[in-house]
């Protein structure tokens, strides 16, 4: 009997030893295979779209309209009656929006730029979104900046409400920014008291901006289940808007730094309207547009969830693998979880660090042991340990539990709030102490 | 037990021993491809790994503007604390070889304190070390790449502001003078056996090095009748002077001192600079080998004139700002 058992054991060991390599590998933890990488040149198509912009009225006509606008709106420039007539003529011109865009970008008088921004907001011209958003980046006058943020909101884009909140904090623009904010917030369905404080307005604007960053749409467009609607298809975009957005993406293939940065700025704030176009860059065979496309998605975060399928195959891409993983985390692409966990053991520091960061962004508590192992390994490089520590802090199961109790309402609320405040205070204090210690 | 069964059991036992042995002692496989030896299978990922053998190079590099490329407060201010993300591709790049020598780099997100370090210039996409010579016996077994000593190596980052284009347009390529000849001068490297070999300095002296700046131009101030002639010739830089970013400035300033000792105010004779994109004006940087002359009328009663050549890291700063460097000072006696 014993001899038979011994023979059976010997047979098993012999079979294991002589089994083909792939059979033995199957006994080890499986590393999921990535979908195949399918990249194709994006620039030719984007260049074509950029070149397809409907023609404007021409420089001469724009100059004429610009004169009319100045006559109508420049303080002390014309007699009140002449100014009123000019305003009316300007408003009745079918092509006056082109002049508004010109004034917004080029006019030296900030008051006129502010007026142009306001009128563009009222025009309903979605094609002005990239121009207004770029102005957010460059406008130095706080009042004009406030009107630009307001115009964007009027066109259904809350991507500059953080700026509006900032302008409320400045003495020279607080009043204007505050009154714009009241209109924006009420239009978004936010309930305000009779005389809201600047602090309240700022807080609500920052909240709306946060919601915009998460969803890429204004509250009125959020679906019943709280999710964002599908991003509009490229073909469904207004042709001029599409051409203007595409023109910014074309810059990603070229050298000049500022247009590249402009593009990233615009696409990270303009919401779902630019998502499908920017996604083309994620699938681009050209490495720099691909990298920038991914960085745009990283900035968009959860509102770019649809690109998850496009980034997963890139995890092993030598050029953009690490940023792809970070994007998967930022957009919350759950199918990436096993791939990210597997890459915590990569030989490449950049990949391990990206995997840790992405797992933190995903917020999956199951990743905690693996992250803790990276953090506590004294032989691990500090970049990875720092990312692992930050990821653990993000996943933050304890804080989430307190928040959940507060939401469900099954525990003494003041106690919960006190505990949450304490956690946040401790973190802030720890951060300050660490910085002071340096 | 029959003979046949015994033979079968013995054979089974041998297979089992082989099998367990194979299972327990799995031989290491080549990490990437067959051409990698055990020595080169290591993926180099941090400048710290190079330090043990190359402490002298580390000492030159540490504190250089390559090392502080991402930490530099000057860059952080100008890039809006790297919110201008495009700057990061060169100030915290992936290894240059990954995107290709001469091609734009891609940014990384680790090792911020290493900026542009050993890995970025000396390591290829697979983590293997590159050098100017094959040294298979060295612990890091560098493999020779022609690009290592070529301008194209610097071009990935230093043509973002057209510096290598300026070099190509000059007579320096014909003369066979490249980036390394000025910015990585030859040094003697002490080897472990006490002998020395030729190496290259890794301090990258440039716009923050006064001696280097002084070598770039020849500044002359002379009197020509009723005029003061202030001239600068780019005699030492193989690219425009100043080069790189648009905020870099070279100024020629002058003043007159009257016979009674009254000192006139400092005036600007000329500014060499490429303006910001949204500023009016043309690029007045001084190309390699070219000379620029400014003439100023000498007021009556002038006893002498003073002139100064300044290099400024930012355009709108005063003379006493630490970012202003006085390169040359001249005095011309008029009466």
Descriptive report:
The complex is a heterodimer of chains A (438) and B (335). Chain A is mainly α and 438 residues long. In chain A, 66% of the residues lie in helices and 0% in strands. Among the domains of chain A are: 54-221, Leucine-rich Repeat Variant, CATH 1.25.10; 309-395, Leucine-rich Repeat Variant (Alpha Horseshoe), CATH 1.25.10; 400-437. Chain A is built from 24 helices and no strands. Chain B has helices spanning 3-24, 48-51, 55-61, 73-78, 88-91, 96-99, 118-122, 151-158, 163-168, 172-175, 179-183, 210-216, and strands at 130-131, 143-144, 186-190, 196-200, 217-224, 227-234, 249-258, 267-272, 291-297, 302-312, 324-333. With 335 residues, chain B is α+β, with helices and mostly antiparallel strands. In chain B, the strands form four sheets. In chain B, strands 8-7-10-11 form a four-stranded antiparallel sheet. Mean pLDDT of chain B is 87; it is low at 18-36. Chain B has two domains: 48-200, no CATH class; 210-333, Immunoglobulins (Immunoglobulin-like).
Give a topology summary.
The complex is a heterodimer of chains A (about 450) and B (about 325).
Chain A: H1 2-18, H2 21-26, H3 43-51, H4 59-73, H5 80-92, H6 96-106, H7 110-123, H8 129-138, H9 142-154, H10 161-168, H11 174-187, H12 198-215, H13 239-250, H14 257-267, H15 275-282, H16 287-300, H17 308-311, H18 321-331, H19 337-343, H20 349-362, H21 368-376, H22 382-395, H23 397-408, H24 413-437
Chain B: H1 3-24, H2 48-51, H3 55-61, H4 73-78, H5 88-91, H6 96-99, H7 118-122, E1 130-131, E2 143-144, H8 151-158, H9 163-168, H10 172-175, H11 179-183, E3 186-190, E4 196-200, H12 210-216, E5 217-224, E6 227-234, E7 249-258, E8 267-272, E9 291-297, E10 302-312, E11 324-333
Parallel strand pairs in B: 1-2
Antiparallel strand pairs in B: 3-4, 5-6, 6-9, 7-8, 7-10, 10-11
